[in-house]
């Protein structure tokens, strides 16, 4: 019998452990002292549950007093107060729970048990000493479980915070990468076609204004991702003209699914840079989303120059943008997400991301 742990799933461990202990104690009492098994179980549960509840209430009350004394009354109610403070809680809780449980069982059965203050009764003294020992051992067990789960929770929180920091760093590196590429194209266009450069600059300003705030979030709706891609591709169409044909396919039912922002941007840049720009005729860029059992599949396909072979596929796949995609997927989803980049049989390449849903 011990205090209730702080984490919600520890309640199940505590309740299950208390029930198991009561059953074991009831069976041992029946085997040693004889009598009726039902009475033995009734006394075991009445006493065991009340001891557990009393120790828990005493611990929680003491934690509240200590938080008030330390000047942190709003601290989370999961502060382990240490064995120095817990021993009085266990002793007093055992006395109160034993007395209350015995009274409850006597009331239900009509028996008349030996009172707690009649310690001269040897059988009663042994029974109470055994109860106190069980309470202490149970408290040690639940304390060990609590500490283990608390350590696991703290480790998970630290890993999540590290992953979020890593994602923020990756995203902060990705945004300048896209911006510098666009500005480099704009610099060339200013010399060759100033009027188109002015239009492209206006588009860029609108794109940055719409993207800047959204890109600071850790996730956004898939519909927002497609809208940002539409803004970016409008910039690219000003530069490439009719050579770039765009098709965005987002089924209505998938728009609300959340993904990391700018996840598809590097794939679109890669398709234009390595697939469509080197191709004299240009080609079509298709970005699509579809749902498969248990996952969301995002594809960026182009009909451009394609990937000639394994060596070229490896060099393209090791670029900054695609490395970003792989690292962000690993940080966010672990092994549950996959990313592939392959040549298409009819020409061009296709990048595919599969996310768990």
From TrEMBL:
Keywords: Coiled coil, Kinase, Membrane, Transferase, Transmembrane, Transmembrane helix. The keyword Signal does not apply. InterPro entries: Bact_2-comp_sensor_kinase (IPR050640), HATPase_C_sf (IPR036890), HATPase_dom (IPR003594), His_kinase_dom (IPR005467), Sig_transdc_His_kin-like_C (IPR004358), Sig_transdc_His_kin_internal (IPR010559). It catalyses: ATP + protein L-histidine = ADP + protein N-phospho-L-histidine. The chain crosses the membrane at residues 12-32, 38-58, 79-104, 124-146. PROSITE patterns: HIS_KIN. SUPFAM superfamilies: ATPase domain of HSP90 chaperone/DNA topoisomerase II/histidine kinase. GO terms for molecular function: protein histidine kinase activity. Residues 263-357 form the Histidine kinase domain. It comes from the Bacteria. Pfam families: HATPase_c, His_kinase. Its EC number is 2.7.13.3. Residues 146-173 form a coiled coil. The keyword Hydrolase does not apply. PANTHER family: SENSOR HISTIDINE KINASE YPDA, SIGNAL TRANSDUCTION HISTIDINE KINASE INTERNAL REGION DOMAIN-CONTAINING PROTEIN. This is histidine kinase. The lineage of its organism: Bacteria, Pseudomonadati, Pseudomonadota, Betaproteobacteria, Burkholderiales.
